[in-house]
Amino acid sequence: MRPLLTKQAAQELQAQIARIRENARAVNAARAAEAAEQERADRAAFTGDCFACRDTGYAHGSLATCECARGQAVATERRQRQIAAVLDAAHIPPRCAAFTFASFPARQIAAYATLTTFLREWDGQQGLLLKGDYSTGKTGLLIASLREVASSYTGKSAAPIHFTTGADLLDALRHGYEDGTHSATMERAKHVALLAIDDLGAEKPSEWVIERLFVIVNARYEAQRPTFITTNFGLEDLEARIGPRILERLMETSRVITVDGPRLRLRPKGGAS
User: Fold this and answer.
1) N or C: fewer beta carbons within 10 Å in the chain?
2) Residue 272 has pLDDT above 60, yes or no
3) How much is the mean pLDDT over the chain?
4) CB-hemisphere CA count at 13 Å for 229?
5) Angle at CA 248, nearest 5°, toward 244 and 251?
6) pTM for this model (two decimals)
């Protein structure tokens, strides 16, 4: 079989390819030198703090933040916005939305230290049961806890946390039979990443109440989804109001903390329940 190119033609083609490559290297070198000179001029003219990101806080051509101080500030601001969006979607009442650990008015109580330690070590699955007399700050501690764990859910779901009272949850389920929202309410309670129920047990106990609560708690138990709860009742009284099957599942999967501090008035940045 005859070769496609003669030896001389092949040599000429290789020489031509070599010249093209050399020209390309020369052009690239000239462009790199021009870019370097332009960067030196830009740096000389720049009067800000960070030339790398031009003080925008963002790495060039990327949504990633720069490592400069402005970049870290941008990252912090973005994280705070994400956390605020998670909390807004949680339906926390405006009166309670500002509760934080820093502003809790009874930080000397044992429950405060126990709870903050629990949250530092939280594995994303364990539940929480805050029990104690009324007006001892359980709601404030619950909201502060949700604020702490909200960062765990940023970027994962539009509404990963749902806050409700036990009475409001059951009222929504009752009215849902009439307006067609019962299934949606039930599915959200069963499947939201973190369900927070304030004042569980305050609703009048009945077979229907216990059955509906069991469906929710059991679904979350089986799926290893955390539930954060407050109650004014001791464990024995709570069992009488929600049934032993529910309490057993909550006890198995939750950290139980007794809030036995002083009676507190509801404060704009404190917490009481």
Assistant:
1) N
2) no
3) 89
4) 31
5) 135
6) 0.76
